[in-house]
């Protein structure tokens, strides 16, 4: 039974992660047409919800490092979307949106014709199931000391910042607000686990993107860098860099493919051992995931079935192969 529970915990992590990645990736493609990145837009949302908020709290809500927040703020100031209001203490920040920034928020809202994958979930999951997912994720977020996040999500829905609700009827609008809650809880959960997991990877000499790449190649042996970039939601150049670093470390094997100039990728035995070690010694020691053990096995299976259906709806139709193939490394390397 313990192995079955561990498999469901591993499944939950990956189902949540890949659902979030697909939602994030497609939304980012949408807003890039407006000269923004999703992190930049998210800072604008945070400032709209909490005018004058400190950079430290922006970091907490956004799950970013302080240097990342400083860089985003600098870019947004250069674009004229935010300004730093003068205070009595000149060492403190009082960041607020400019009129241009307010207008930009209206321009980038998701519409009914948007290609954002979240629209594929509209009215496809019962309210009971969605609310069960919200309840589960909220428990995980609070256990991860992110209990300030629900207020941000409430304001995001209250101010109708993410969607243009003029294009949706009342029933659809309410459902979308629930999906927005799920999306943001998923984001906080995934990024918090990623941060905790990344800190553990020093003991195996990997970065988090490198670990993800190894897992993908483990699940789909013989894929090339272009296919890896698609499955990992990376650019081609990023995927190539990750592959080269893994090859140098002896975790990957490159073989010439049948198609001219193509290179097929395989995980070496050393890489297989690393994946097995990571699941058994790192992933299982992340406190947020262990909080899920408060659920019965049957509840975990049911919650995962909801996440699995959502993944299929947004086009992540190979997620079950990925989970089963990567979890196999435990049995192959006891």
Automatic annotation (TrEMBL):
Transcription regulation keyword on record: yes
MF terms (GO), sorted A to Z: DNA binding; DNA-binding transcription factor activity
Domain HTH marR-type: 2-142
Top-rank lineage group of the source organism: Bacteria
Domain STAS intervals: 106-230
Keyword tRNA processing on entry: no
Key words of the record: DNA-binding, Transcription, Transcription regulation
UniProt name for this protein: MarR family transcriptional regulator
Annotated organism of origin: Fervidicella metallireducens AeB
């Amino acid at each position: 039974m313990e192995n079955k529970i561990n498999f469901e915990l591993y499944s939950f992590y990956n189902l949540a992660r890949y659902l979030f990645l697909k939602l994030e990736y497609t939304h980012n493609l949408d807003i890039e047409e407006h000269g923004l990145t999703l992190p930049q837009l998210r800072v604008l949302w945070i400032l709209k919800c909490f005018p004058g908020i400190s950079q430290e709290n922006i970091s907490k809500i956004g799950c970013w490092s302080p240097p990342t927040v400083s860089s985003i703020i600098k870019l947004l100031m250069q674009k004229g979307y935010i300004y730093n209001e003068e205070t009595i203490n000149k060492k403190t920040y009082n960041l607020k949106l400019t009129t241009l920034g307010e207008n930009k928020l209206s321009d980038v809202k998701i519409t009914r014709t948007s290609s954002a994958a979240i629209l594929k979930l509209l009215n496809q999951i019962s309210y009971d199931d969605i609310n069960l997912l919200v309840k589960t994720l909220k428990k995980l977020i609070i256990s991860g000391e992110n209990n300030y996040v629900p207020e941000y999500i409430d304001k995001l829905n209250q101010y109708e910042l993410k969607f243009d609700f003029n294009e949706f009827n009342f029933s659809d609008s309410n459902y979308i607000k629930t999906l927005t809650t799920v999306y943001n809880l998923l984001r906080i959960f995934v990024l918090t686990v990623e941060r905790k997991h990344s800190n553990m990877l020093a003991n195996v000499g990997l970065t988090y993107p490198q670990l993800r790449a190894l897992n993908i190649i483990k699940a789909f042996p013989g894929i090339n860098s272009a296919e890896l970039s698609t499955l990992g939601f990376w650019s081609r150049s990023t995927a190539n860099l990750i592959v080269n670093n893994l090859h140098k470390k002896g975790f990957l094997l490159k073989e010439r493919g049948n198609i001219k100039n193509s290179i097929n990728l395989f995980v070496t035995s050393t890489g297989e051992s690393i994946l097995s070690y990571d699941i058994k010694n790192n992933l299982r020691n992340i406190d947020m995931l262990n909080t899920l053990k408060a659920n019965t096995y049957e509840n975990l299976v049911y919650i995962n079935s909801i996440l699995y259906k959502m993944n299929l709806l947004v086009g992540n139709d190979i997620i079950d192969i990925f989970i089963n193939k990567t979890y196999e490394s435990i049995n192959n390397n006891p």
